[in-house]
Amino acid sequence: MREVLSVGALGTFAVGWLLPRLERFRADSPFVDLRLSTHNNRVDLAGEGLDCAIRFGDGAWHGTEAARLFDAPLGVLCAPAMAERLARPTDLGRETLLRSYRADDWPNWFAAAGEACPTLKGPVFDSSWLMAEAAEQGVGAALVPVAMFQRALAGGRLVQPFATEVATGAYWLTWLKSRAPSPGLTAFLAWLQAQARPQE
């Protein structure tokens, strides 16, 4: 018997990590009829009729169980033309630094790089995917979870000019504490965790 599983996922995670693997899940769990929608980390599981949601953060969301999937350190990505102007982290002070709603991301990254953070004036985005797209189009430098943009890096559309990365959270699968996990949710979580393990 097929089970409908409604999953909310961050757009960045959905496009950068989940979609390339989704056919494997369908093959592994053919009884699950997956319904995927995207959100920007603010999600109301009950109100939106979701069985579970993939979020980024520290795992502490009120009224939910949270299973850690993997860390997602943030690194600087930019267009190749900008990367040519960046010899050291302080050079970023002359560029537009694209921001997320998490105000401490850039200060944390500059601290990890051993430099003072310049004044931040760039536009604010609610999605790392959108921010990376803006970076690809030359709008500015993005600070995003590098693991989600491997295809853009491999294709040369984005460049990581500095090796410094800073851990600010992880991806988690969350579901309401008030609802016992269904067989489909249990299968989806097991599959996500298996896919997230480092490949030998």
Task: Please give a quick description of this structure.
The protein has 200 residues and is of the alpha/beta class. The chain has helices at 11-18, 22-28, 80-83, 105-112, 128-136, 150-154, 183-196, and strands at residues 3-10, 32-39, 52-57, 64-71, 74-77, 99-100, 124-125, 142-145, 165-166, 170-176.
The biggest beta sheet reads: 5 strands, mixed
Strand order across the largest sheet: 2-1-3-10-4
* Distance between the first and last residues' Cα: 34 Å
Which structural class matches the secondary elements?
alpha/beta
Q: What's the total helix number?
A: 7
What is the strand tally? 10
Q: Indicate the radius of gyration in whole angstroms.
A: 18 Å
Helix content: 25-40%
Shape: elongated
Portion in beta strands: 25-35%
Report the mean per-residue pLDDT as an integer: 94
| Poorly predicted segments | none
Order of helices and strands: EHHEEEEHEHEHEHEEH
List the main descriptive attributes of the protein structure presented here.
200 residues, alpha/beta, five-stranded mixed β-sheet, three-stranded antiparallel β-sheet, 10 strands
Explain how this protein is built.
- The chain has a five-stranded mixed β-sheet. Strands 8-5-9 form a three-stranded antiparallel β-sheet.
- Helices cover 28% and strands 26% of the residues.
- The protein starts with a strand and ends with a helix.
- It has helices at 11-18, 22-28, 80-83, 105-112, 128-136, 150-154, 183-196, and strands spanning 3-10, 32-39, 52-57, 64-71, 74-77, 99-100, 124-125, 142-145, 165-166, 170-176.
- The longest helix has 14 residues, at 183-196.
- With 200 residues, it is α/β, with parallel strands linked by helices.
